[in-house]
Amino acid sequence: MTTLPLQRSLFRAALANPTAPALGTWVKIPAMESMELVALAGFDFVVIDLEHSAMSIESAYRQIGVALFAGVAPIVRIPSLDAGIVQRILDAGAEGIMVPHVDTVEQARAAASAVRFAPLGTRGVGSTSRAGAWGAVSREEYLRYGQEEVVLITQIESRIAAQNAGAIAAVDGVDALLIGAADLSTSEGRSENDPAVAAIIHEAIRDTKAAGVPIGNAGGPTAASVQAAVDAGYSFTLMGNDASLLGGAAAAALTAGRTVNYA
């Protein structure tokens, strides 16, 4: 068997940086070139979005491979908790799973169980997959990586989830939380900028950090957005997505081009 170095989570390494937040972006376009471009830009991590895109598991599988070779941490947001999908995504080599709409401790425990091997959970063993370097690493290393390096991020997207944020963060196997401000504000019938929504989010951030767990958000692709995330207490933030970044660059290019006259 080939001796390979221990694999470490790039996402965890980025979170451990004491001088800067971990920066990521969503990937929604099912094209490997999109992932390659995002990785070349230098993001710390990417979240491959299977909830709000038409991406298939096979597309995600290819995106994960590109991300790993390009040196950016691939995390996959699944549409809902499904242990079978979790199994396939993690054995495809994903560094982590993001689960939307986790409102309770019980749901967080179910997610942790799907992500972790026994005795911590119920994930099946498939060490001849990409996650096990196709059998090139030992079973012990495959299991160690799954238990110690793979990350589980639960999304807080409702008032009850925000109220339970501290308890969810304390669940063994939950590594980080992500505030979904769009769904949270919509469920309250308010805008994301409403002071009442801000208060709910502030309490969730406070309780999560008190539990010693990092919390992040989804923001815009600007320095102001990242600064606002840092000021709010977030440890990581998502700067837009590949589609909006492409669209914004295209619009900016066209706007610049329209300023030129040739009369």
**So what's the overall shape?**
globular
Percent range for β-strand residues: 15-25%
Radius of gyration: 19 Å
- Any idea what the CATH superfamily is called? Phosphoenolpyruvate-binding domains
Count all strands and give the number. 8
Number of helices: 12
Give the biggest beta sheet: 8 strands, parallel, barrel
Please state the second-level CATH architecture.
Answer: Alpha-Beta Barrel
Return the string of H and E elements. Answer: HEHEHEHEHHEHHEHHEHEH
User: What's the level 1 CATH class?
Assistant: Alpha Beta
CATH topology, which one?
TIM Barrel
Q: In order across it, which strands form the biggest sheet?
A: 1-2-3-4-5-6-7-8
Taken together, the total number of domains comes to 1
Provide the residue-averaged pLDDT. 96
> Poorly predicted ranges (pLDDT <50, ≥5 residues)?
none
Distance between the termini: 70 Å
Considering DSSP H and I runs of 4 or more, what fraction of the residues is helical? 40-55%
Indicate the structural class. Answer: alpha/beta
Q: What report would you give on this structure?
A:
With 263 residues, this protein is an alpha/beta fold. The chain has one domain (10-191, 213-251): Phosphoenolpyruvate-binding domains (TIM Barrel, Alpha-Beta Barrel). It is 45% helix and 16% strand. Strands 1-2-3-4-5-6-7-8 form an eight-stranded parallel β-barrel, surrounded by seven helices. Helix 2 packs parallel to helix 3 (57-70). The longest helix is centred in the C-terminal third of the chain and has 16 residues, at 195-210. The chain is globular and about 70 Å long. The N and C termini lie far apart (70 Å). The model has no long low-confidence stretch (mean pLDDT 96).
